[in-house]
Design brief:
482 residues, alpha/beta, 4 domains, 17 helices, 14 strands, 13% strand, binds uracil
Length: 482
């Protein structure tokens, strides 16, 4: 058997691999006969001369063509050999091989693809720039920022355009142990590896992040396992806000006690506007990142203790959207825990819907009220306030990706459809224009609480019936929403 040794550039050499694999298929070289070398590693065998001239054509099914660029970024030294095996089998007639998830080779490649996708997500979400002075032009020059990051895989070239789109207006460098990326406002370029010491120490901009994180950290929601899964510890040293985490966790018990005791009007520390603007300018890459920005935002109408975020699993089949948090929700920082929430919980149980497996949120994330002595009386949000919070809701539901969204009451309908529609006219299955999920409209549980006693049982039964219909729609096969 004639053997071949092929050297590719260090990292993810997609072009080199494509050119090489085309020749290997044309020359009918078996994968076992090929040694792949990435970068400067020494070879024990004579190497093939680098290919010259155009490489032979090779038409691959779309699923294979999509897998190759992702797997090439994986750090596994076997990546090129595995991909050669895949391409070889496809070229030998297994055209749909990449769709056979149970095939051991495809399974392994899919795991590699997922690991690369998750690494990209982490880099987008957890990279933090530090101020590194001004560029050419002295004090009047453009501000320079630098970041240190250690990706698991060879993703720098793929990840960097995200940052030039997000931060076009300042110069930045991203340094990694494998290479660096640089942006000067016009051009993205790549260079040699960097060192962590080349990135400056914490600056005032970062102090804003730490402040923000401490002030928005909700001790009642401390869940270290979830926090580590969402924000692995490996990245903490790059993220200024995480310096505050051990202390915050230690203090969580005491702070929960204080939060319950605290008078509702106690001032909540808010994020410096500059840090908030920088955070919001990054399109949040995850639900956690979106929630961080919501937590840090000022309520439109002052007075609320905290932002009340949605609750429930991402990927829940059914999501419920209410109006806004009430008094109890505001104090506890959780949606639907007050009287209307308890009524909803009972109706969900009777309709056979598991609250824990559903996603519950509100159109407006802060409590709006009118103070009457010690009491805080709910005030409905205006259409303008609902429109303000729509940015969050749309993104939140995009991350949760439910099959069906149930609008509880007219404010939720306004938030989801942009239109004021009387519930009596629209009650039942609904289509919210441009949304990827099915819709369902019903009354808000607080409406039931306001009814005279004699009218309530019948209205409650109708509400439970609505929830049952919604549950069966959420469980219906794909396409059932038209
Ligand atoms: N009403 C709502 O709309 N949402 C809540 O979270 C509580 C009451």
């Amino acid at each position: 058997m004639r053997t071949r040794t092929i050297r590719l550039r260090p990292g993810a050499d997609l072009d080199g691999f494509r050119a090489a694999v085309r020749r290997l298929i044309r020359d009918d070289v078996a994968p076992d006969a090929v040694t792949w070398i990435a970068g400067e590693a020494q070879s024990l065998f004579p190497e093939d001369a680098p290919a010259a001239g155009p490489s032979p054509a090779l038409a691959l099914p779309r699923a294979v063509a999509a897998l190759v660029p992702a797997v090439v970024m994986h750090r596994d030294p076997e990546r090129y050999g595995l991909l050669h095996r895949l391409v070889r089998r496809v070229a030998d007639g297994e055209r749909h091989l990449a769709e056979v998830a149970s095939d051991p080779l495809v399974h392994r490649l899919n795991l590699m693809r997922k690991a690369v996708a998750s690494d990209l997500h982490k880099m987008h979400a957890f990279l933090r720039f530090r101020r590194a002075g001004t560029g050419e032009g002295g004090a009047g020059g453009r501000e320079r920022f630098a970041a240190w990051f250690e990706p698991e895989h060879h993703i720098l070239a793929e990840a960097a355009p995200f940052f030039s789109a997000r931060f076009p207006s300042f110069d930045w460098s991203i340094l990694t142990p494998d290479g660096s990326a640089h942006w000067d406002g016009r051009t993205l370029s790549f260079g040699p590896p960097g060192r962590r010491e080349d990135v400056p120490e914490q600056d005032a901009f970062e102090a804003g992040w730490t402040d923000y994180y401490s002030s928005t950290f909700n001790p009642a929601r401390t869940n270290l396992a979830a926090m580590r899964a969402e924000m692995p510890k490996k990245y903490w040293h790059n993220m200024p806000e995480t310096a505050a985490i051990p202390g915050l966790v230690r203090e969580a018990g005491r702070r929960v006690g204080e939060m319950i005791e605290r008078a509702p009007e106690a001032p909540v520390k808010r994020v410096p506007a500059r840090a908030l603007a920088a955070m919001a300018a990054q399109e949040p890459a995850s639900l956690a990142a979106l929630n961080a920005v919501i937590r840090a935002s000022e309520p439109l109408v002052p007075g609320a203790t905290q932002a009340v975020l949605g609750e429930g699993p991402q990927g829940a089949a059914i999501a419920f959207v209410g109006e806004q948090p009430g008094d109890q929700e505001d104090l506890q920082g959780r949606p639907f825990v007050g009287p209307a929430g308890q009524l909803l919980a009972r109706a969900l149980r009777e309709a056979g819907i598991d609250r824990e497996r559903s996603y519950l949120t509100n159109a407006v994330k802060h409590f709006k009220f009118e103070a009457r002595g010690k009491r805080r009386l709910h005030k409905s949000p205006t259409a303008g306030e609902v429109a303000h919070y729509r940015w969050w809701l749309d993104r939140e539901l995009a991350f949760v990706a439910p099959r069906l969204v149930v609008a509880l009451g007219a404010t939720a309908v306004l938030a989801l459809s942009g239109r004021q529609i009387p519930i009596t006219r629209a009650r039942g299955p609904a289509a919210f224009a441009g949304k990827p999920y099915g819709g369902f409209i019903t009354v808000h549980p607080s409406y039931l609480l306001r009814l005279p006693d004699e009218a309530r049982p019948e209205a409650y039964e109708a509400f439970v019936d609505d929830l049952r219909r919604a549950a069966s729609l959420a469980a219906a096969p794909a396409g059932a929403f038209g």
